[in-house]
Amino acid sequence: HLLRKLIGAYISGFGLVEVRFKPEAGPFVRRVAREFCRMVIGPEVIEESRSAVVIQDLSDPAELSSEKCLRRMYMTVRAMLEDSLHALKAGDEALAKDVVQRDQDVDRLYWMVAKQYHLAHTAPPGSVDRATMAGIHNHRLIAKLLERIGDHAERIADAYPIIAEKGLDPKLARELEAADTAAIAIVDKAFTALMASDIETANEAIDARGPHQKTIDALSHLVSAKKGQELLALASVVDSLSRAASYATDIAEIAINQAVLA
C-alpha cells in the first residue's frame, strides 16, 4: 500500500515526499522507499532518520520529454516481443528472464509520461497551449498502449518454463514466429505513422490486423490439440501475440487522429 501511495505521489508531480513512521517500522519503510526509487525515474532518498524518510524527485522533464519516453518504450517493447519468442524457440532461459526484467524499464517510462501528463493538466491556466495539451494527452494514451504490449511480451516470456519442458514442434514454432513477426510489423508501422503523422502508413498497420488475426486463428486451432499446462501456456502466448497487434492498431488510430489535426 505504501508503494502504491508513493507511485501515486510521483505521478501527481510531488517533488518532495516525507514518509513518517514509528521507529520499529523503519526497516520496512526504508526497504519500500529504496524499491520505489529503483522503480521510477528521478526520485532519490535524500534524508533519513529513525522516524522519517525524505524522497526528492531529481528528474528534469525537459531532459526526458514524453516523446523521448515513447521512443524508448517503443524500442524496448519491440525488442521484448522479438526476444520473448526467440527465447521460447531457442530454449534460452536467460533471455526469457531478461525480457521479464525489461518490463520494469517500460513501466518506469510509462510512469514518467503519466507524471508529465498530470503536471501539464495541473499547470496554471494559460501556461500550456492547447496543441501541447493535446499532444501530451495522446502521449499518455500511447504510453499506456505500449506498456500493455510490454506486459504481453513479458507474458510470452513467462510461458518459458512449461514450453521449454515440452519443447516446440517445428510447425508450431514456424507459425508462432510468423505471428510474432507480423505483430512486430504492425507495431513498427503504427509507431512510424505516429512519429511522421503519416495516415497512409497508419492505415497499412490497421489493415494488417485482419491477416494477422487469421494467423492467430490458425494457431489457436493448432494449439487446441495440446493438453494440460502446455495447452494453457501456448494459448497464453497466442493470445498475447493477438493482443499486442490489437494495441498496435489502437496506436495507429491515434496516429490518424493526430495527423488530421496537424
Task: Describe the structure in brief.
With 262 residues, the protein is mainly alpha-helical. The chain has helices at 2-11, 26-39, 66-90, 93-121, 130-158, 160-166, 170-196, 199-207, 209-223, 228-261; strands spanning 16-20, 43-48, 52-57. β2 and β3 (52-57) form a beta hairpin.
Structural commentary:
By secondary structure, the protein is mostly helical. The chain has helices spanning 2-11, 26-39, 66-90, 93-121, 130-158, 160-166, 170-196, 199-207, 209-223, 228-261; strands spanning 16-20, 43-48, 52-57. Strands 1-3-2 form a three-stranded antiparallel sheet, covered by helices on one side. Helix 3 packs parallel to helix 5. The termini are far apart. 37% of the residues are buried. The mean pLDDT is 92.
